[in-house]
Amino acid sequence: MTSILMYSVRPDEQEAIQAWAQANDIQVDTTDHDLGMKTVDMIKGYDGIVIQQHAALPEPELYQRLKEYGLKQLTLRITGYDIVNLQAARENGLVVTNVPAYSPRSVSELVLAQVMRLVRHLGEASAREAKDDYTWAGLQAHEIHNLTVGIIGAGKIGSAVARIFRALGSTVIANDPVHRPELADTLDYVDLPTLLKRADIVTVHTPLDETTHHLINAQALDAMKPSAFLINAARGPIVDTPALIKALQTKSIAGAAIDTIEGEAGIFEKDLSGTKVDNQALETLKAMPNVEVSPHIGFYTDAAVNAMVNISLNDVKTILEGGTSEHQVD
To answer: Which of 139, 189, 194, 228 is the most exposed place for a label (fewest CB within 10 A)?
Structure first.
C-alpha cells in the first residue's frame, strides 16, 4: 500500500487526514515533529511527504537524504514556500508543491476584523478601560465606507480582501503586475507610490521572495498617510520590523495589525507561558495599544484546514501516480 508521512500535524487536522486516507485507500501516518536534519530519517520507507512549518530547510544534505529514501516530491500544506531550498530540491529531483488557495476568505476575514479594530480604536479603548479610563478623546473613528483600501498583491487572497471592502462601500485600489479583468468592478490598479500615498488602509498579500523582502521599509512607511494603518497577513519579512516600530513610535502611521512577523519561528503556535520570548520587536509591538497582533492564524478556519489537508494529499497522490500537480512551485 502507498504510504505518506505528514510532519507537524495538529490534533485538529486528524479528522480530515483520516477521512482522506480511508477514501483513497492510502496509509497516512502523522508526527507532530517538524521536518529537519534530526527528523528526516522518519521518512524512510514512505512514498510521500507533506510538511507545514515555519522553520527553514536550507541544508542540501536534507534533500539528498530525501532522494536516497526514494522520495519524488516535497509537498507543503501551506501557501508560503520560502522555507524550501528550491535549488537543492531541484538538484535532487524533488517536485515542490504548495497550497496557494486553501481558503482566501479565511485570511480576508481576519484582515476585516483587524481593520475594524484599528479604525474603531478598540485596542486603545481597551487599554484605557484596563485603567478605568472611559474617556472618548482621540477615539473618534472614520466610517469604513469613507476610506480607501490599498491592496499590495491582488491574487486570490488579495482579491477576496478587495471584494469584502468594496461590498462595505470602500474605495479599493491595488498594486499587482497582473491586472485581472474580473476585478474591473471592484478595484482600480495603481502604481505602488500612488497606493501608499492614497490608501487609508495598506494591506499586504504578496508572496515572499527576493523582490518582496522588506518591500514595506522605512521609505514605504514614510510615504503613507500619518492617519493610515498597515496590515500584514502575508509573510513576516515583507515588512521591515524595526522600520515599522519606528514609524509607529514617531506617529508616521496611525497603527498596524500583524498576523506574521520576522523571527516568529519557534514562537507562534507555541505555548511560551512563563518563559522569556526571544523576539524583542514582537514584545514592543504587543505593548502598543494601536497595534493588533495575532499568532499567524489568518488561515485557521475549519474550511481552510480541511482544504489544506485535502489539496496537499491530492497533490502527493497525483505525483506518485505519475501525474503533474497544478500547484508545482518550481
So the answer is: 139
pTM of the model: 0.88
Angle (CA) 300-283-144 rounded to 5° is: 55
pLDDT in tens, 157-189: 999 999 999 999 999 999 999 999 999 999 999
Mean pLDDT across the chain: 96
* pLDDT tens-digit readout, 196-240: 999 999 999 999 999 999 999 999 999 999 999 999 999 999 999
What is the spatial distance between Cα 123 and Cα 157, in angstroms, rounded to a whole number? 26
User: What is the model's pLDDT at position 100?
Assistant: 85
Q: Judging by beta carbons within 10 Å of its beta carbon (0-12, 13-18, 19+), is residue 86 exposed, middle or buried? A: middle
In the numeric block, which cell numbers belong to residue 30? 502523522
Catalytic residues: 235, 264, 296
Cell 514556500 belongs to which residue?
81
Q: Measure the CA–CA gap between 187 and 205, rounded to whole angstroms.
A: 15
Nearest to 74 by CA among 318, 317, 316, 326: 316
Residue 330's pLDDT band (cuts 50, 70, 90): confident
Contact between 18 and 12 under an 8 Å Cβ cutoff? The reply is no
* Cα–Cα dist 264/249, whole Å: 22
Q: What's the whole-number mean pLDDT along residues 101-112?
A: 91
What span, in angstroms and rounded, lies between the C-alpha atoms of 241 and 264?
12
Grid-cell match 491592496, residue found = 151
Specify whether the CB–CB gap between 200 and 230 falls below 8 A. Answer: no
Total residue count of the chain as it appears in this document: 330
327, 98 Cβ separation under 8 angstroms: yes
Pairing status of strand 27-30 against strand 48-51? unpaired
For residues 267 and 277, the answer to whether their CB atoms sit within 8 Å is yes
